Amino acid sequence: MFTKAKNIDTAFKETRRFFIMITSGIILLCAFLVYKSFKMVTGAQGKIYVLASGKAMEAFAEERRDNIPVEAKDHIGTFHQFFFTLSPDDKQILAGITKALYLGDASVKRAYDNLKESNYYTSIISGNVSQTVKTDSISVNTAEYPFYFRFYGKQEITRSSTVVTRSLITEGYLRNVSRSDNNSHGFLIERWQILENKDINVKNR
């Protein structure tokens, strides 16, 4: 009698142990599947597809804070290219300045108005002058907001008889704004001013 009771008790304990092991295994398996599913969904959300030349190319989205220095420098460089690259063509000048104005605030508009009032763009057109800008370096302080920057570059101004190289140093601040077709980086240049713009070399053609 006691032997049978002991055998039943042992069988019950073994059965309980078996079910505990099975239940633990199922819980671990479910936790693993949930983790893998979450990881897969997160990875899928980080993927974007870019259409280039009729082909869909996979790209990966990044957090904005991880890419601020790169985007800020590209925004600043692009702005200076639009503002300072000029040809003796009023439509080209207007197109470039319009793009630059989307990237900056009223300080940029004031600089443009001052140049326009001094007949700078008229002299570019009448004198068949071409102007390009080359970026030497861009420093951005992302430790404090708005982000202070300084641009270092050179202008090359080609006239009928000479090629003039000028140093170009500007400074300003970057403020976050919404991204758009006209402002893909989502920055706006504020308090922009030209610190230096002087001839450093003149060559006869």
Automatic annotation (TrEMBL):
<keyword id="KW-1133">Transmembrane helix</keyword>
<keyword id="KW-0472">Membrane</keyword>
<protein>
    <submittedName>
        <fullName>Bacteroides conjugative transposon TraK protein</fullName>
    </submittedName>
</protein>
<dbReference type="InterPro" id="IPR022276">
    <property type="entry name" value="Conjug_transposon_TraK"/>
</dbReference>
<keyword id="KW-0812">Transmembrane</keyword>
<feature type="transmembrane region" description="Helical">
    <location>
        <begin position="18"/>
        <end position="35"/>
    </location>
</feature>
